[in-house]
Structure formats: structure tokens, C-alpha cells
Design a protein that fits this description.
single chain, 250 residues, Four Helix Bundle (Hemerythrin (Met), subunit A), Helix Hairpins, 2 domains
Length: 250
């Protein structure tokens, strides 16, 4: 149960970090209204409170706190609400620039944290290998169509056709005209079906494995309870036998 709650917390925190990243990037790129900026500060500060609580919880439980701090100091930086701290000084140009620098640094750290979570998921599902093959497929077929099909006027047109074909959208605004271009496109369609089938199979296998592991753990718990009950029953039988023996002697 605790493991399930931990996983739910990790997923929820990852989504929260992703949303916060989007808001922070928007605050760097666009000029936000005061009300929207206040909402962003509240959203970000709440996340920072959770991140700091989670960090210090693990810090005080660590066997070697010095090593923990050396390895995870970036998480501490990620939990500092720079927008809230520097908000009273935002009118000062120097402080405003400094805030942007701190915010940019914090965005990088949050991206690293989020990537670590995503990396674990990709490895568990083998999607890292499949996505690598997908990226290689896109590059290979984009270059092939651009080099061998005259109707592809630019690399972007070739890329647009490859991606729309792989995703089975097929807008039809860019099409190969030559025979070799059509052959390449035919191979691309077959490869695309295989890649996306592999993605579906990998995700299905991952969730099936999780369900199987949960079922195995439940069966193990039930078996342990049955063994415990059997042991207690055996002890009761021995006590009853002992009582019967004492009664027989009397």
C-alpha cells in the first residue's frame, strides 16, 4: 500500500513539476498580467514547499547526510521559490535581471529532475530503444526523400511528409512524385506500423507486468497469512493434546 501511494505521489509530483516548468518558461518569455503572475507565484511556491518537505524528509532519514547533500544539492535549489523571495524587489532592474538568471537556472534543474523520472519510465518500458529507432527512422527517410525525390523542395517538406506518414495522419499536401520516392514511402509506411505497434506492445507489457507483480505480492501476503494461521493451528493442537494428556492422567 505504501509503495502504491509512493508511486502515485511521484507521478503527481512529476506532472506538477511539468506544469510549473511551463508556467516558469512562459513568465520568462512573455509579459504576464499582475493577477496571472500572482497566481504563478502561488502555484510555484506551493510546489516549492512540497519539494523542500520531501527533500528534508529524505535528508533526515539518510544514513550519511553529508553525502546525501552533495549528491542531491540541486534538489534543494529546485525547491527555492525565487519569485516569492525576490517579488518585493522586482521593480529594481538589476534585481529583475538577477531573478531571470535564478529562474533560468532553476528551470534547468527542474528539467533534470523531470528527465530522471522520465528516463526510469523509458528504461522500464524499453521505450528509450524504440524512440531511438523512431528518431533514426525519421532522419533516414527525411534525408532519403529529400535526396532522391524531386517533389521534396526542402528538408522541411520531406520531414513534414515523413512525420505525417508515420503518425498515419497523411494530410496529402506533400506527396512523392517519382517511383523511387513512392518505394521509399511504402517502406516508410511499413516501418511506421511496426514502430507504433512496438510502442503499444511495450506499454501493454509494462502495465501487465505491474499488474502481475501486484498480484504476486498479494498472493505472497495471503500465503504468509496462511502459513501463520497454520503455525498457530499447530500450536493450538499441541496445547489441546497436552491438556488431554493431563486430563487422562487425572
Amino acid at each position: 500500500m505504501n509503495e502504491k501511494l509512493s508511486k502515485i505521489f511521484d507521478i503527481g509530483l512529476s506532472i506538477w513539476i511539468l506544469l510549473d516548468l511551463i508556467f516558469l518558461i512562459c513568465s520568462l518569455v512573455f509579459i504576464l498580467s499582475p493577477q496571472l503572475y500572482h497566481n504563478l507565484i502561488f502555484f510555484d511556491t506551493t510546489l516549492c514547499a512540497v519539494l523542500l518537505t520531501e527533500f528534508f524528509y529524505r535528508f533526515f532519514r539518510a544514513e550519511n547526510r553529508k553525502d546525501f547533500l552533495i549528491k542531491n544539492w540541486t534538489e534543494l535549489i529546485a525547491g527555492i521559490p525565487f519569485d516569492l523571495i525576490m517579488f518585493p524587489f522586482i521593480a529594481n532592474d538589476t534585481m529583475a535581471i538577477l531573478l531571470k538568471v535564478f529562474k533560468f537556472f532553476r528551470i534547468l534543474i527542474l528539467c533534470i529532475q523531470l528527465f530522471e523520472v522520465i528516463k526510469i519510465f523509458l528504461k522500464d518500458t524499453y521505450l528509450d530503444e524504440i524512440l531511438g529507432i523512431l528518431a533514426l527512422t525519421i532522419i533516414t527517410f527525411t534525408l532519403s526523400l529529400y535526396l532522391f525525390d524531386p517533389s521534396m523542395n526542402s528538408l522541411f517538406d520531406s520531414l513534414w511528409f515523413v512525420v505525417s506518414s508515420l503518425t498515419t495522419v497523411g494530410y496529402g499536401d506533400v506527396l512523392p512524385d517519382s517511383m523511387i520516392g513512392k518505394v521509399i514511402s511504402l517502406i516508410l509506411l511499413i516501418v511506421g506500423v511496426l514502430i507504433f505497434s512496438a510502442i503499444t506492445a511495450a506499454l501493454a507489457s509494462y502495465f501487465n507486468k505491474k499488474l502481475l507483480n501486484e498480484g504476486t505480492e498479494e498472493l505472497k501476503t495471503i500465503k504468509d497469512k496462511l502459513d501463520s494461521n497454520e503455525k498457530e493451528l499447530k500450536e493450538l493442537k499441541e496445547e489441546i493434546a497436552l491438556l488431554n494428556k493431563k486430563l487422562g492422567e487425572k
